[in-house]
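A protein record in our archive is deliberately plain, so that people and models can read it alike. The tokens are whole numbers drawn from a learned vocabulary of local backbone shapes. For reference, a complete record is included directly beneath this paragraph.
>
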Amino acid sequence: MNDAHLHMVVNHFPIIGIILGFGILVTGLFLKNNSVKNTAYCLFIVGAIFAAVSMATGEGAEEIAEKLPSVTDQIIETHEEMAEKLAIVLYALGVISLFGLFLNYKSHTKAIFVSYIAVVVAIVGMFFGKQTGTSGGEIRHTEIRENTVNTASDIQNEIQIEEGDDH
């Protein structure tokens, strides 16, 4: 298993984890149930850990991906910039979640405040997660790129030129 493969294995969990964690945390707030909120916090912490692994494998994946056809430095750079922003948000959310777990354990009055902060940070994280996932998908899934039609017609033109077809 190379870095590109490992990166693709681990990079989905931070995005999925933040979405699931957000839903669970909102449910925990609605139900006023600390066990449910603690479950969300644990998902956020695991998501932050997986974000660190994704970032650690990203450079090796870049080295492999930049040699592939139709992969440009711009596509990789866009993904890398979004991933860095997402990672910062996920690391912050992981730390906030550790505080939330601790305050819930101590039945501290500020625990609810930390929950609301986590909700706001998770919303920001979901935005960056969507951007990161889309920009990462565009690296190999040319069909989701904005210029897909142009890319497809350019490839067709190249094929016709190579075959000597003047049409």
Notes: Residues 3-163 form one domain. The chain has six helices and no strands.
